[in-house]
Design goal:
Blueprint: H1 3-8, E1 19-26, E2 33-40, E3 53-56, E4 69-79, E5 88-95, H2 107-114, H3 117-122, E6 125-136, H4 169-182, E7 186-191, E8 197-206, H5 208-228, E9 230-233, E10 250-253, H6 255-258, H7 262-275, H8 277-283, E11 306-308, E12 315-317, H9 319-324, E13 329-331, H10 340-353
Parallel strand pairs: 1-5, 11-12
Antiparallel strand pairs: 1-2, 3-4, 4-5, 6-8, 6-9, 6-10, 7-8, 10-13, 12-13
Helix pairs in contact: 2-10, 4-5, 5-10, 7-10
């Protein structure tokens, strides 16, 4: 082991009670993840006991140079799989010095929806399916694809096994274990239809925690691909042509949907989602029109339809849900680059709070 590796893997608890907290936030594009670290005097498990911090918002596209200070409010804590020990990752949201959420802070508005008594009573569960594409660093071409060329057509790659079908599995497995270590409720992984594309699932998680967990999982994946020298893409259609896009299918249920008679509640919720289709599409990710074409397991972006076991629908209901008369449904419209705070809270708002 090299001296550098020895130092990176030092166990701080052998010599000090101090820990390192990595503060994580979302930058000005709404998808760029930023972070920086600070030393704390000892272990912390409650985000309310963590100090607020600040950063230069003019360098992240979130504040003007003449008034650049943005304040980080700690919101969720996860174990740090990179530094280990008592060190932590801290998911934060961002505010002006006066305490006003900045425009890219989507968590604050989501937290208000999830704290509404009607929403709290329904205990909304989410299962988020995050698809992503691994790209070769210097050419921005999918991992495993020949330079300047294409692999064989889609078919053998979905959940595929073998050197000519699965590209980047070491990254995927490292991410899986790191998320479990961190305390993220990651529930599985699989290879996707397009080679070089993978998926992980987070959930079931309740309310605002689903967004916190997905952002933490995205951060960990960014860090692992950084070490591996691979570019991580959340583009909803990274390769044009006869190749699947990348989505973030959002599985959802409420207490009423999970109870007896829940299928009728599900159908009413889907009806409400249909009435607000355009508003949801506008909030479901940039570039989604390149993905939602009516082909490659999608519904056309301008069409709302639902069906049982139909992967070409906007909303899919599982066979088990139909059979048992209760359960959950899947919103297949969100793009891979969606903000989970926006999508999860909007689904709750439309199905629980909104009155047509």
């Amino acid at each position: 082991m090299s001296l550098l590796s020895d130092l990176v893997n030092l166990n701080l608890s052998d010599s000090t009670e101090k820990i390192i907290a990595e503060y994580i936030w979302i930058g000005g594009s709404g998808m760029d993840i930023r972070s920086k670290a600070r030393t704390l005097s000892g272990p912390v498990s409650d985000p309310a006991k963590l100090p607020k911090w600040n950063y230069d918002g003019s360098s992240t596209g979130q504040a003007p140079g003449e008034d650049s200070e943005v304040i980080l409010y700690p919101q969720a804590i996860f174990r740090d799989p990179f530094r280990r020990g008592n060190n932590i990752l801290v998911i934060c949201d961002a505010y002006t010095p006066a305490g006003v959420p900045i425009p890219t802070n989507k968590r604050c508005a989501a937290a208000k929806i999830f704290s509404h008594p009607d929403v709290v009573a329904e205990i909304p569960w989410y299962g988020l399916e995050q698809e992503y594409t691994l790209l070769q660093k210097d050419v921005k071409w999918p991992l495993g694809w020949p330079l300047g060329g294409y692999p064989g057509p889609q078919g053998p790659y979905y959940c595929g096994v073998g050197v000519d079908k699965a590209f980047g599995r070491d990254i995927v497995d490292a991410h899986y274990k790191a998320c479990l270590y961190a305390g993220i409720n990651i529930s599985g992984i699989n290879g996707e239809v397009m080679p070089g594309q993978w998926e992980f699932q987070v959930g079931p998680s309740v309310g605002i925690s689903s967004g916190d967990e997905l952002w933490a999982a995205r951060y960990i994946l960014e860090r692992i691909t950084e070490v591996a020298g691979v570019v991580l893409s959340f583009d909803p259609k990274p390769i044009q042509g006869d190749w699947n896009g990348a989505g973030a299918h959002t599985n959802y249920s409420t207490k009423s949907m999970r109870n007896e008679g829940g299928y009728e509640i599900i159908k009413k919720a889907i009806e409400k989602l249909g009435l607000r289709h355009k508003e949801h599409i506008a909030a479901y990710g940039e570039g989604n029109e390149r993905r939602l074409t009516g082909r490659h397991e999608t519904a056309d972006i301008n069409t709302f339809k639902w069906g049982v076991a139909n992967r070409g629908a906007s909303i899919r209901v599982g066979r088990d849900t139909e059979k048992e008369g209760k359960g959950y449904f899947e919103d297949r419209r969100p793009a891979s680059n969606m903000d989970p705070y926006v999508v999860t809270s909007m689904i709750a708002e439309t199905t629980i709070l909104w009155k047509p």
